[in-house]
Amino acid sequence: MKKLTKYQLKKISSNLDYFFNNATKNEIKQGKLWYKNANDICKDIAQKYNTDVLTAANVISALSPRNKWSQNIKDAYKVFDAQKNNLHPEDIKVCTFHKNKFKAFNCIQNKVLITDKSLKTYNFVNNMAYLDNDFLTVDIWHLRACFNKSIQINSAAIGRIAYQQIKELTIKKANILGLKGFELQAIIWLITQRLYQYN
Q: Residue 28: CB partners within 8 Å, gap ≥ 6?
């Protein structure tokens, strides 16, 4: 996907309005707290394991593919515990791909952190670690809201220019609503999962 046209961006803007307008009060409340809670977890890990919030966020992100959020966090603590006790990746089980477990260990041991070559995860890490409004996680659920369909497309497939356009549009809409970009994204994440849960 190349640069989005004005027509496409107008359509995306309308779709995001549609999803936000379908949010329940509870979804708005949960969405506003989602990254704050993730940030608190990063701070807790940093304190417990003598590391920093950026490393904690990287490990959480590395363990996130195909992993439920509650289990994702349990796995992150498990990896840090293993590292603290001089265990190896082969010594523990996590609920994501084998390669991602090794990536999580590599984050801790060698400070091999996610870069902006991986736009979605790089933005996700910075949202969690710093609550930075200059970043926005455009994942499959956000793309489903943008295009109002149960699409199977990842953020890498849309390209860097389109990613930036969606990011800027979402943050702008969030500001109008009195929200941070990551708060609006989290609210939309909850709504799309509810509406597309069977797709």
A: 187
